Amino acid sequence: MLLEIKNLHANVEGTEILKGINLKVNAGEVHAIMGPNGSGKSTLASVLAGREEYEVTEGEIWYNGKNLLELSPEDRAREGLFLAFQYPVEIPGVSNTNLLKTAVNEIRKYRGEEELDAMEFLELLKEKSKLVELDQKFLSRSVNEGFSGGEKKRNEIFQMAVLNPKLAILDETDSGLDIDALRIVANGVNKLRSKENAIIVVTHYQRLLNYIVPDFVHVLYKGKIVKSGGKELALELEEKGYDWIKNGKSEVT
Ligand code: ADP
Ligand code: MG
Ligand code: MG
């Protein structure tokens, strides 16, 4: 198993947001996590990334045979975990190319592989930028600085393609994308799909899942996974909306 989350509870600023998450992800699988705004989807992604403001109070996360919560955010990245955030950060003064060169070679060193030389690295960038139809001029620009919302999302998928992660988590990479950008992003993600790696797609809307067809769909609501199913669950949510889940919960309680 690539990722196993057991009874995960997490606080943000003293408030419990995640209230007992259980999730198993195998290599080769694509999981979608859906749910209304404020459910804790981004909180879950942030905990996986190891963001400091998020305090795990209970539970365990196992990733690729390692206790994820004991790894620094840098080591998580070196272990092949990649996160595309809902709000990608801008890094003025650091070009896309330099950021990726450092990251790629860090990962290779960690794996005991030889670093890529300048030519090999440029070839890799060229190939992957074509994949996401990213104009070459973005390579030399500062990371995300002055990029439009859609360009930032596309750049995230480009970074993902270059890094070739074992587990990629995409937090609402679809929000703010027009239909063409959506297709490009989905295409980039689909190219990454393989038997060796897994992808968790976090989304509020079903739309993206027409292009990235998930093996499993989970609904996160008020910090818990309240429903899991196959790809048809996303269509059911599209049809019935989240009130169905919310009402279902209120009938139970
Ligand atoms: P989603 O991604 O599903 O929309 P979030 O994980 O962003 O949900 O938010 C879940 C809850 O946690 C919300 O009530 C939100 O206000 C709160 N929250 C998330 N991050 C922070 C933070 N850094 N500080 C305070 N509250 C936060
Ligand atoms: Mg939100
Ligand atoms: Mg969110």
Automatic annotation (TrEMBL):
It comes from Ignavibacterium album (strain DSM 19864 / JCM 16511 / NBRC 101810 / Mat9-16). Residues 3-247 form the ABC transporter domain. Belongs to the ABC transporter superfamily. Ycf16 family. The gene is sufC. This is Fe-S cluster assembly ATP-binding protein SufC. Keywords: ATP-binding, Nucleotide-binding. One of its GO terms (molecular function) is ATP hydrolysis activity. SUPFAM superfamilies: P-loop containing nucleoside triphosphate hydrolases. Transmembrane segments: none annotated. PROSITE patterns: ABC_TRANSPORTER_2. InterPro entries: AAA+_ATPase (IPR003593), ABC_transporter-like_ATP-bd (IPR003439), FeS-cluster_ATPase_SufC (IPR010230), P-loop_NTPase (IPR027417). The keyword ATP-binding applies. Pfam families: ABC_tran. The keyword ATP-binding applies. CDD domains: ABC_FeS_Assembly. One of its GO terms (cellular component) is cytoplasm.
